[in-house]
Amino acid sequence: MTNFYRSLGSALLIFALATGHSRHLEPRSSQVPDARAALLNPQHRLWNQAAPEVFRARFETTQGDFVLEARRAWAPRGADRFYNLVRTGFFDDSRFFRVRAGYIAQFGIPGDPAIAAVWKEQTIQDDPVRQRNIRGFVGYAMTGPHARTTQLYINLVDNSRLDAEGFAPIGQVVEGMEVVDRLYAGYGESAGGGMRGGKQAKIFAGGNAYLDREFPKLDRLVRARTEQYRER
Fold first, then answer.
1. Per-residue pLDDT reduced to its tens digit, 84-122
2. Does the residue 3 lie in any domain?
3. 5-46, pLDDT tens digit by residue?
4. Per the structure, how many domains does the chain have?
5. pLDDT at residue 229 above 70?
């Protein structure tokens, strides 16, 4: 009987891996109450919450986990928005839709078109550039001055040339950069590209359904959650 249950357990595990169904890869509930209401209303009081001076967010992806450490002193407006986006589950069950080897990995368009439509034009004012865009540092994508919304990029290499263009890092990947390096880059710009390219309309309209159908190899951002930070 023991061998039977052991065999059954092994069979179920193999089935889960083969079909892509795993409890670890399922998005979970947000860290704040009324998150759905806040995600559909940019004027909700939740968005006025200031971020801690230093905080971390753990990202679960289909390639593994990585941890982003944000510092409010580097870019307070950007850090505040990022903090609340994570807390509401904004990034959960979305896609790394723009990954260019030797450049950046970009994310931040929700998989739910209803939420994506609400936030597409919700810009924040610029922060001064206080850090360089070097490998592992993270900032907001934008089309020009005061045009940051919810899309972020992770520098895969030294992209310090972006400093002069006003791209202000809000934090850096402090654990799991090797996970970021493994994100699928085979589609390059074709899955939607950057904000300046003007080719993201189909992502906003179709969300995950569109990306999963047309670009099935894109890696999933399963969920992101803030973690308690302790200075060492």
1. 999 999 999 999 999 999 999 999 999 999 999 999 999
2. no
3. 444 444 443 344 343 433 334 445 578 888 999 999 999 999
4. 1
5. no
Residues with Cβ < 8 Å from 156, sequence gap 6 or more? 100, 101, 102, 103, 104, 105, 135, 180, 181
Which structure tokens are listed for 111? 């998989």
106 is a domain residue? yes
**Termini Cα distance of the chain:** 50
Residue range(s) defining the domain that contains residue 43: 30-227
The single-letter code of the amino acid at 152 is L
CA-to-CA dists, residue 84 to 42, 70, 77, angstroms:
11, 12, 11
Alpha carbon 58 to chain centroid, angstroms: 10
59 phi and psi angles, rounded to 5 deg: -105, 125
The region, left, alpha or beta by phi > 0 then psi within -120 to 50, assigned to residue 34 is left
Q: Among 162, 104, 151, 95, which Cα is nearest to 123's?
A: 151
